[in-house]
Amino acid sequence: MQETQIFPNSHTLFTTLLYFIGSAILSFLLAPIIIHLLYKLNIRRQPKGDKASELFDIKGGKVGTPIMGGLIIIITTLIITITFNWSREYTWVPVGAFVLSACIGGIDDLLNIFGKNRDLPKPLRLHIKLAFVHKYWRKRVFYFMTIPWAAFKRLLLFLGSKPKSGLQVHEKILLQTFVGATVGYWIYYKLEWSEIWIPFLNRYSWIMEPFEPILHILGITLIPEYSVIDIGWLIIPFIILTIVTVSNAVNISDGMDGLAGGLAFIAFIAYTVIGSSISEYSNTIGKDVINLTTYYGSPSLAYLSATVAGSLLAYLYFNVKPARLQMGDVGSLAIGTLLSIIAIILNREFTLLFIAGVFLINSVFSLIIQRVWLAFTGKKLFHMIPLHYHFALKGWPEEKVVMRFWIISILLTTIGIIIALS
Fold first, then answer.
1. How confident is the model at residue 208 (pLDDT cuts 50, 70, 90)?
2. In a 10 Å sphere around its CB, with 0-12 CB exposed, 13-18 middle and 19+ buried, how is residue 214 labelled?
3. Strand order in the sheet with 195-197
4. Does residue 2 surpass a pLDDT of 70?
5. Is 94 within 8 Å of 338 (Cβ atoms)?
6. Which is more confident, 129 or 310?
7. Residue among 134, 154, 153 at smallest CA distance from 144
8. Minimal CA–CA distance to 342: which of 246, 261, 221, 414?
9. Which residue of 63, 94, 134, 410 is 20 to 30 Å from 238, comparing CA positions?
């Protein structure tokens, strides 16, 4: 087993800059064409019928703005990656998951615009009642057998939004789970890799020693000299959970001009720096990494991150208030998926808590806190979730919310980079 070397590589950094600049230029060229097509095809934001839409989309003048602006990022990333950075070992599956998530988001966007209103899942109490009182015994059996499925749908509906015409929450989660399972299968069975990096474990492994018997029962092995734990097949559900959580966090944060795009730009710049700095072989690009406990990838991942960052820079130019277009689910789900996959393959998944920290705090964490607080006190802690709406309702201008979220993200991301390279 070889020890990981962290070093600056001038060739890698120079090539990474070329990917960044090339991606930004191509995105600037594609943006006017895509904006024109979105207007022509009438792919524009429609009122969702909820309170957030009424307060911020209608009154904020966002209705009628083209959505699916994330196509700028997706098309640019695909063109550059397939042309210059296509690697079966390093970019094939991440980009494939990126495209699948974009398709999920694109379907949701189109259904929200052109689809018919859909009925929400039945309340769980009604579903259980029908399992006992329906006049047809076959229906009673059906309702009884599907109680767990009904509970699953209602739980996700409780935690998420209630779309009128788009994908239901449980449909979106199941499709994202399929994407995560595909990535997990590739990492566990194809790369034969099941380690999770825990920062500073090599220095403070004594903290984990009392738990080793329990970890052993669960099939988890500590490898403190490399600051990793081997969790075996559990890596697959871990990857699924990470991808679903981060992609939805990015998706939920796409509610103000420049917010999700700016946070994503900062995050991909961070993983460009991390990916350029972590390598097993100097001056080697795309070479198979063997006999290593931890797979760190090649500079291909840094190039991929730089490509997305460059395209996000161009997207932001057209997305800052007042936005000429908005990212849409097609962009936010794809970006969140790719962001989490890059962190996982670089074996720096822990840094998502910092680099994607504002995404997570703004959406997932604040939602959990809100639900728990409401359950115990009967009152809301925040005016509205996601958190950026809470500050808007407190009177903060949209630009103030976005800029302060960017600043906090820069601070957290800096901490994440320091931890990743420590």
1. confident
2. exposed
3. 195-197, 228-230, 221-223
4. no
5. yes
6. 310
7. 134
8. 246
9. 410
* pLDDT of 41 above 60: yes
The count of C-alpha atoms lying within 13 angstroms of the C-alpha of 201, restricted to the half-sphere facing its C-beta, is 19
Alpha carbons 415 and 422: distance in angstroms, whole number: 10
pLDDT band at 243 (very low <50, low <70, confident <90, very high): very high
| Domain ranges for the chain | 5-120+162-195+211-351
Which pLDDT score is estimated for 216? 80
Query: Cα(231)–Cα(340) distance, rounded to whole angstroms?
Result: 18
- Evaluate if residue 37 carries a pLDDT over 60: yes
DSSP annotation of 382 reads S
DSSP run (H or E) holding 317: helix 299-319
Q: What is the DSSP letter of 3?
A: P
Residue 27, both tokens:
């995105």
CA distance 141 to 233: 35
- Rounded Cα distance between 331 and 316, Å, is 13
Neighbour tally for 191: CB within 10 Å:
14
